[in-house]
Structure formats: C-alpha cells, structure tokens
Write a structure and sequence with these properties.
The structure holds two protein chains of two kinds. By secondary structure, chain A is of the alpha/beta class. In chain A, 44% of the residues lie in helices and 14% in strands. In chain A, α1 packs across α7 and α11 runs parallel beside α14. Chain A is globular and about 70 Å long. Chain B is of the alpha/beta class. Chain B has three domains: 275 residues, P-loop containing nucleotide triphosphate hydrolases (Rossmann fold), CATH 3.40.50; 229 residues, Nitrogenase molybdenum iron protein domain (Rossmann fold, 3-Layer(aba) Sandwich), CATH 3.40.50.1980; 124 residues, 3-Layer(aba) Sandwich (Rossmann fold), CATH 3.40.50.12380. In chain B, 41% of the residues lie in helices and 14% in strands. Classes of the chains: A alpha/beta, B alpha/beta.
Chain lengths: 412, 727
Amino acid sequence: MTERSLKSISPDGITGAIFALEGMKDTVVLLNGPMGCRFYHSTTSQFLSIRPLLTLPAGEGGARMPVDYNYLNDWFFRQERVPCTYLDGVDYVYGTADKVRDALTYIRDNVGLSLLAIVNSPGASLIGDELLPMARSLLGDRRVVMLESCGWSTSFEEGYSEASLALLKQAASPLPGLKRRPKRVNLLGLSIWHRYAPGDAEELRRLLAICGLETGSVLCADCAPEELDRLGEAALNVVLYPELGLDAARYMEEAWGIPFYVCETPPVGFAASERLFTEICAMLGADCAPLLEESGRARALAWYRINQVSVSYGKPRGVRFFVDTFPSLRAAYESFLTGYLGMEPSGPREAELVFADANVIAELMLQNRTFCGIEISLPGMGYVDLVPKTHLGVRGALFLTEQVLNGIMSKL
Amino acid sequence: MSDRLELALYGKGGIGKSTMSANLSAALAASGARVMQIGCDPKHDSTRLLLGGRSIPTVLDYLRDTPKERQRLSDVLAAGFGGVGCIEAGGPKPGVGCAGRGIISAFEFLERTRAKDDYDVILYDVLGDVVCGGFAVPIRREYADAILLVTSGEFMAIYAANNILRGIRSFDGDEHSRVAGILLNGRALPDERARVERFAEAVKLPIVCRVPRSEAFLRAEERKRTLMELEEFPEERAVFTELAGQVRAGLPLRRALPLTDSELEEAVLYGRRTVSVPAREEAKAPAPAPEPEPVRERAPEKRPALYGCAFTGAATIAVHLTDAVIIAHSPRACAFYTWQNISSTGRKNLFNRGILMPSAISPNYETTEIGHAEAVFGGLDKLRSHVERAMERRPGAVIVITSCVSGIIGDDAEALERMSTPETPVIVIPADGDMGGDYMQGLEMCLHRIAERLVDPDAQTRPMTVNLIGELGVGFNTDVNFRTVKGWLDALGIGIGCRFLGDAGAEEVRRLTAAPLNILAGDSADGRALRSWLEERYGCRFFPRCLPIGFDASRSFLEELGGFFGVADRVAPIVEREAAQYGAEVARLRPLLRGKRLFMTTINTSMDWLLDAAESCGMEFCWIGVLNYLRQEVKITDRPERRSVAEEITDFPAVLERLREKKPDIVLSNYTASVPEGDYIVDNMPMTQPVGFRSGLEILKRWALLLERRREGEWSHDRALFEKYFA
C-alpha cells in the first residue's frame, strides 16, 4: 500500500495466507485460533467467488446438507468457509492440539476435501504446538498444509507468498516421468481476493489460447490440489505480480527447473498486455499476431469513445487520479492512466478519480471530496458481479477505460 | 532423508549443558565432522567457549533490529574452534516478552536461510526444562533426530530430565524412539552415581557418558577454550572424544518412558525399584501402592465456544467515543479484522442508503502492529511510544485495547494509565483477545471502563434531556434508528445528552449523569445488564421502555415519554397521524392475511412487534423456533399465550420436522439455511429491525403480495444446474 494519511488498515499476512489457500479447489482452511479471527475470512470467502457448497452427509435419506444446517456446529458456526478451532485462554496455556484434533476429525469424517490447510492465528503461533504430524496422520491420503506463523503484522502479499510456497513444499508431489509441454504456461500471483478474480483468470486464459498457448495451473486461484503434482509440465511460469508470485516461481525453478518470466508491470492496459504476450510468445515460439490484432481493434473502439469525451470536455487528459494498492499493481494502473489516457497522478485529496478499495473510497467521501471512486481491490462497496469483469488484458483495458470515462462524466 | 544428524542436549538450567555441548561440538569437529551448535537459551552463552570468549549477535536481536530484506545468515553465524558454526538464538530480558516464542522465531529464520545445509551434525543446546511449546521446538521430529538428557545426581536435575522425557513422549508417543540416553555431569555428590543409575534403569535409558567433576573445566573456562584445545587434560578430553565417537557411530535410540512424580521419588530418593511403563501398558503392571490421583493437565469438561472476542467487541464500541484515539495493542492482523467489522456497516449504509457514518467509515482506530520482535522482547515500549504520539494530538481520551498476543506475552498495558493527564485520560481495556471473554463481554468491559474513567457522578442536571444507552456498535439499522428517535425527540422538545456509546465525545460521557432519564436502545440481556450497572453505580434513572419497534410499542413509548417530560400534548398529533395510516393499512391487509399460519425461526430476540402486527391482521402463529446460541433466557415474547408455540432449536433437521408437522402458509426466518420448497411462501428478514410505527406492517405488506402472487421466480429451480457446473 502507498504511504498515505488515510486511516484504513491494510490487509495482513494471515489474510493473505488464508485467501491464497482458500483459492485452491476442494480445500478446507482451518484457522487454529479464536472465533473472532475468522468471521471476516469466512464471510469474505463465501461471497467472493462461486464456491461449491460444503456439505454434510447426515441429511434425510442420505442426502448431503449444507454445513450451516447445524446451527451450533463447533467449527463452522453457520458459515461455510474457514472453520476455526475457537481457541480460548486455556488453550494458550495447555496447547491447542486437542481442539485441532477434534476439528480435523469432524472435517475428515463430514466434509469432502482433497486438501486441508491449517493456519495458526497470532496467539496460536506463539505457543509452538506441533500439529502437522497429527494432521497428516488423521487425514490419511489427503494433502495437508500447515502454516505455523505467517507473520502478525506483515502484509497481505507476504502471507500469500508464504502460503503458496507452503503449498508447493508440503502438498505437491511431482509425478514421476512428467514431460514438459512446450506451450504450457502456469500463472502465478492471482488470488480470489482480487476485486475481479474470476474475470482476471478468464481473460488471461482466453488471451493465452488466442496465442496458441495452453494455460496450465493458476496457482491459488481455482487450482485443484491434484494440479500441484503437474505444475512441472509447464514450460514457463508467468509471474503476474512479483509480490505474490515471485517466491513460488523461484522455488519451482530451483526445485523443478521451470523457468519463469516476471511481468514488467501486470497486464493492466493495452501496452502492458501486448508487451506481456509478445514476450512470452517469443520465449515459447508462439504467435502473438492474433492477440495484437484483437488489441488493435479494442484500441480503435476505445479511441472513438475517448475522442468523443475529449472533443467535448478536453478530458481525460489532465484529470487527477490516485491509486491505492500494492506496488506492482499500482505501477500498472499509473502507467496506463498517465501513459495511455494522459491523466495526472495526485494525492488522495486532490484526485478526481480514486482507484482503491471501498474503505478508502468511503473515507474520502466522508471528507466531502468530489471524486469518482473505482474499486480495484477488496473490500468492495457491495456491488454483486455476475458477468465476469477484469482490469487485465484487452477486455480489462476496455472495461477500465469505460469506468474512467463514466467516472469523469459523472463528475463534470 | 538427509544424512545430517540433529542432536539436542536438554537439561535443567545451570547443569552444565553449554559446557557439555561446546566440548562435544569441539570433539565432533576434531573427528572431522562439520558441526553447527545452536544455543537456545536467552542468556546466549552456549558457544562462548567455542569462540574463545567472544560473544556474537543473537538471532533474535538481529531479527528485531534488521529489516527482513537485509537479513543475512552470515551476520549471526560465526566460526568457532574446528570450524564449528556457532549460532545463539538469544531472547528477551527476564520478566518480559516470550522466550519460547523467541526460539520459534529463531528457528524459522534458520530454516529460511538454510543455515544447516553445510553441516553434518547440528547440536542444539536447550534451556533447562520443557517449559512451553517454544522451548520444545528443538525436540520436534522435524528437528532433533536424537536427544541426550544432561543431569547431575541432584534430585531437581533428575526431576527436570524426567520432565523432558514427558515432553518427548507427548511428541513421540509409542511410535518413535529418539532418546539416546543420559549424560551424567558429575558434581561429586554423595550417592550421585547410584541415583542417576537408578533413574536410568527406571526409565530404561543408558548412561552414555559419565563426565567426572574436574578442575579441567574451570581452567578451560578461565582460558575461554574447550578441552579439545588444552593439552594438559587428556583424561577429560578422552571422555568427549569417546562420546563424539559414539555420536558419529550412531547412538541407539529409545522411547521416552517418563516416571510419575511419585515413581521418581521412589526410584531416585529411596532407591525402590520402579520401572516406567507407558500409560497404555499400565494396566498390565503389578498393582502399585495406592497413590493420590494424578493432577489433570486439562479441564475435563468441554468449554463452550466464545462467540467472537473481547478485543473486537471492545474496539467496536470504543470507536464511538468520537474524540478519542483508539489504539489496538495487537498485530496488524487483529486490527484489520476489527476494522473490517466496523467498516462493513459503514460501507453497507453508504452503498444501500447513501448514508455516511463517520465512526464506521473512518474510525480513530490504530494499531501498534505487534510483530515477532515485540512478541519476543515485549511490546510495552512500542505501546508507550504510540500512546505518547496519540497524546500529542490532544484527544478527549486515549483508549488502549489489548489482544491475545499482548496478553500471552504479559505486557503490563494497564500501567500506562499513569500517563493520563487531566485533559486526556488513558483508558486501558484489558481484553487480551478472547482471554477477556467473548465479543459481548469485551463490549461490556469497554463500556464499564470508559464510564469509570470519564463519568462525573455529580454532573449538574440538564432538564429535558435523555441519554440513549446501549445502541449496537455495528448494527445495520443503528444510524437509521437514531434518526427516527431524534426526529421524535426534536418534535417533543427533548434533547439528547449522551449516546452511551454511540458517537459521543468524552465531554458528553462525563456529563452522563446530567440527564434525568435514560433510554435503553434494545431489550437484550447485555442491554439489561448495562442498565443495572448504570443504575447501581451512578443512580441512573431508566425509562421502562426500550426504543420501540412496531405500532403499539411506538405509541406507548411516545405517550409515556411525553408524560414523563410533561409534553403529552405534543405526542398526540404524532400518534394520531401514524394511527390513521396504520389502521388503513391493516384494513387492507386483513382480508389477505386472516387465518394464515406463520412459522418462524429466529435468534433470541423479542418478536412481539411483528407478532402484534400479524395478530392485528388475523394471522395465526403455528411455531417459533428460537436459536438460543448465547444460552440466555428466551425473550421472544412478553405474551404468555405466545410462549407455548416457542421452542429452542439447535439444528436445522429439527426445523424441517416441525415444518412437516405444522403445515404453515408463511415460513419466516432471520437466521436460517435454505428451506425446501413447499406449499408455503418463504421470507427472510434482517436480524435487526428499524424502530418506529411501521416496522411490522411493512413486512406484512410484503407477505400479502407474495401470497397473492405466489411468484417464486424461475431462477429458484436452477440449483441442479449449479451443482452440475460448479460443484
């Protein structure tokens, strides 16, 4: 996050870790901590993305029922995601193993899953319980990941990075004789916690396909645990956000020999998207001409609409904007807004367009600023998206331009 | 599997572990092994002899003082005698922080930097007893392959060795064998050898090495050298050379079979024969003499889950003291979750209603961001600086709320209340995460503390004012309700003295006792407890009614309030206007709803406002399921005849059973899972309702429409498609 005088507290490392792990399919993330630590993650995960309903087998006539049917369940507490061990003061003295064992046994016996991840809360990480052997023994052939401490005051990005590394180290078993596929690409750094996560992944897959490339796994964003064993099939790991994906890419290069490519900036806007695909196509011997053709058409469409606004009002040139997100993404937005649209970066209080999460946007609204807020990270204000949207790739560049033009027009 | 051997030396503090460890490391190095010794004692002198008396930076000091991106193993790793890699974990000063956590942090750093990669033998020199999970980290199976117990013949040293066996057993059970044996560091005590031998026999361990008491150690200490570097003590050197040979050859490993305390006394002090058996074999052992019941290590009863934590509850209410600075003495993690909890109401009101709520959108809420350094060394200094900076802004108060982490490491945050000035009190809420209780307990703790520190018990009375007490901190309708009530009070010429605690300044709280009347916002158990506390402590007078939901309650509320303040004449026009509208609506709805059967599941809160409206339209109540998750007295209705249809529920299958029995027309819930399709309409309602005359009626209007149209929406039939494409 940028240095700023706004008060909003940035997301932390445990949140980063939980959402990295929650992004895996068929996975339950057990938070070993007090109930107060989990409501945010549970609620957010449940509403972030489309998830299969977690079910219990104890329904009528053998029908499976959602876990929240059991109102007083000790671990889910009527929320479908991120169960917790509800630690209290006694557990900090005597250890958490008993409660973890109870929760794991319940989850093992009642909830379908391929991967179980345990994340310690700040208090639990202080006391040093060894839980991984017990979890492995209880879960049998299902994969287990344990994060003992992912930092209490660290950033979202650090927690995410640590969790994705733990996935690779603890839950991946490369299949013997795995062959590298020369046109296959893994994407690293995407997260279900991003504002437009499903649309981001969809757009990148689409563009890779246009270039004749195959998308392997999108780690931590709808990636099945079994895919971890096949990550080595990729000819290239593409790191979209270095803060989130670089550690995993380095690990895979060292452990499995997969080379990686780090985007100069994430593909926000036409130029960044064209650069990304041109470069990886060059590396993998693929043809990016169809993508450049599509991008050209999109640029033409954008020009027509921007020109209309420019002719009438002289904007977007000179419009002041403020971006608040983690560094690589901020750089990508700033590059697009200044380089392509000719806008001017400014502080939050001078900005006419604010690109941030809903907390920051609301806080600035409270200060009676006249501006338009465009959400680029969570939490959102409450808008429910059904049509997948994205700020990445060619369609993302168009959608972002659309939001900028409408934002400008709404505040004329 | 690595060929590297990781060996941990454990023993009571002061028993000579560091001396033994350093000499063993030196002997191993002399035999050609590449050795690393890791001192795991806050006094960080484990490797001093190996380093010729030189002390090295400890890992924990280094981690505290160096940004993560600049941290390098080479800054804390020093080469000692024979190339032994020397590491000191270090730790906090006595009495502060958490040394056990320090060990965990240090080990994480060593793993991250792959510190052990270049060594054949890793030797951990670990502080005394197994005192907590942190100090037990080296004996986790991912670390120590073998464990040596260092002891002398003193009973307490043997007692500590036995305790260490207990710790190992809790990790290994019967499945693993990792104890290499006992290293007897002789003190020349009477009967010493025999005592240790009796202990060794009882726990079925060999004494792998007997180190005689010798002046050699004193001389080596004076010259800051290991014995391997001194030519004049060949006999003592030979002891370590032989031990090193055993280590390199591979010490046979055994299970940990600790003794009970009484067995230990029998075996060691009195020389009676006792052989340890693991718990599950105990039944087969010969019946021993009667013994007192062993002390239980855990409370046998399952404790109920705490709903939320006191830290969040306290923070959620504290932010409504609008001119205060609220400091969460916590990791950023805890503060972030609380911020989201607070701001969710602000975002929702802005998005849904266009209402800007300052305390929910931009609370004066900060965090000390406790990190590993504070957890290990204590976080009080950081908190003090934070409070000092907050005081410079001259707020109405500084409120400090403590988290689990600050509670576990024992920061004495309450001592900072001494920093209070007459203008700015420092108020510490010792929530300690959830160690201070659940969400509601934190809320109560916070309200009590703020009142105790701020309220003037003898404030001059301000007639024609009321206080609003116990508004919900994060209720979706809190702001809307306040606007409704304020509109009524304005019409009656009554001012609001203090909202305790809903967006009030410190000065308003100081004058809490000035209002002649207090109104409780909601009739919850926690609200009633707060009312009793204020009555008892400050003699506050309370209005008998809470903020009203529904027509009858609103009318009574206004009439009685007008009577109290002598402004009944101003009430009548309001009630007449509302009554006319209400009557017309009921007349329209009654033919549509008469005889319809209402089936309801709800949290434990008064529903009379809705039941009254339903009854006025001629509806029947067939069943009310109460989810009483806080296990409080059931408060669904004040009307005895309605209580007969109320039943406490714990799970949804019970609801389904009642659904089949009762055959309702309308199924309503403010807390439910999906209800299967049936010959009824299903409706949901928010957990908190807006106050006022029309609350119940608006819901009934909706039911009339749904019953009339019976229009479900085709989308509801597509669940199977969801299961097909997304499950």
